[in-house]
Amino acid sequence: MRELNTPARAARKAAGMTLETAAKRARVSPRYLAAREVSGPPVVLIRRLATVYGCSLDDFVRLREGVVGYRR
To answer: Does the residue 1 lie in any domain?
Structure first.
């Protein structure tokens, strides 16, 4: 099965984190984070993930625009 490259997943991978590590640092379950990486995390989680990944909210927007299939 091919893994979807979503903005949240791209940010996590750019930070060099596994799903489990990122979930632990963001204080959510790995299952919840995996689901939100696919469906799009709520703003409160995006803020938390930006802190965990050491990036800005703008970085998430840039990543989203770089994902194949993204449409405005």
So the answer is: no
